[in-house]
Amino acid sequence: MVGALVGTGGFLSAGAASAAIAPESVVSSASSDVERWVVPQTQQGGNYWTSERMQSAIPGAVLVQDNVAAGVVGAVAAGATSRVAPQKAGPDKSTMAASVSPISHIGKIFFTLGGTDYVCSGNAISAANENTVVTAGHCVNEGPGAFASRLTFVPAYENGSAPFGQWNATELYAPTQWSNSGDISYDTGFAIVSSPTGTSLSDSVGASGVTFNQSRGLTYTAYGYPAAAPFNGQTLKSCYGTATPDPYGQSQSQGIPCDMTGGSSGGPWMIGSGSTGLQNSVNSFGYNNIANTMFGPYWGSVIQNTYVAASA
Fold it and tell me: What percent of the chain has pLDDT over 90?
């Protein structure tokens, strides 16, 4: 193995979470590429996530450290390019401009896996159900293994503030290539969340459009809440650069110049500059011997199928 794979941002100590109890009821979708987990009410966030628990949550990057493919992997299935337009927030629901930090539809994700509390990043995306969040696969499922519990999305988080409240997940989705095999090339997951106010997520904060089966080597703006040193996870950060292939061929992921660390896992990659572009990947991992490079999965047909199942 040429390069050692570590969690988002690299330079983390070894050790993933211990195996959790297998899901009580996994409901398969119509696609064999997708696994759906209906979160029991007893495992939903409820009032679990106090400010103290949020502060002590461990960056979810440690969960992806062992997901190294054994050599060069096969090509990710690709199909026709597809695009889904963004959804705008409803009238008077959001006063935040998309270009101002914090960004209303990007936030932090808190969850429990293997009895440990973790933190990642995520983004509200356009969907028919208007309540869909996308993040890294390792932020919803052990890959392979159990799905997370107590997962909650906190949009526009900043310095402990949650201006739009906490949105608890009721369903989780992941490609079976991730949930059954832990293939890092498919490190993407989706959460369906319930509203704390009765208004849908997209009406409350807006939602990014998404696109799949795009050309490789595009230029992206990536966002996230890095919590490992030298960052503290309290404010949104961004990176910008042109994507290049995984130099070791251990995944079909692409890398962009970025020094974000653990906690930024699952943050969105937007095509072009700024937060208004279509989302086309997420923060996934870094190599400990390649400084300041963030890798994200290529969104081909399998991840598209997972999105379609989650967003219905």
Answer: 64
* Locus of tokens 């106010």: 197
The more confident residue out of 312 and 25 is 312
**DSSP letter (8 states) at residue 25:** -
User: Can you tell me whether residue 303 is helix, strand or coil?
Assistant: helix
Q: What is the DSSP code string of 55-113?
A: HHPEEGGGGGTT---SSSPPPPP--S-EEE--BPPPTTT----TTSSSPTTEEEEEEEE
116-125/58-59 β-pairing: parallel
- Which positions ≥6 away from 256 have C-beta within 8 Å? 220, 222, 239, 240, 241, 242, 243, 244, 269, 293, 294, 296
Secondary structure class of 178 (helix, strand, coil): helix
User: What's the pLDDT band for 42 if we cut at 50, 70, 90?
Assistant: confident
Q: b/e string for 32-52 if b means 16 or more Cβ within 10 A?
A: ebbbbbbbeeebbbeebbeee
Domains, the chain, in order of start with CATH, read 24-64+78-87+103-311 (2.40.10.10)
Q: Which of 159, 149, 202, 198 is nearest to 40 (CA)?
A: 149
- CA-CA distance, 141 to 145, in Å (whole number)? 7
Instruction: Give tens-digit pLDDT for 55-90.
Output: 888 887 887 766 644 334 556 666 777 566 556 555
Question: In the chain, at which residue ranges do the beta strands (DSSP E only) sit?
Answer: 5-7, 26-28, 34-38, 58-59, 82-84, 106-113, 116-125, 132-135, 149-155, 167-175, 189-193, 210-212, 219-224, 237-242, 244-245, 254-257, 268-271, 279-282, 285-287, 293-296
CB 164 within 8 A of CB 156: yes
Give the whole-angstrom CA distance, residue 268 versus residue 277. Answer: 10
pTM over 0.85: no
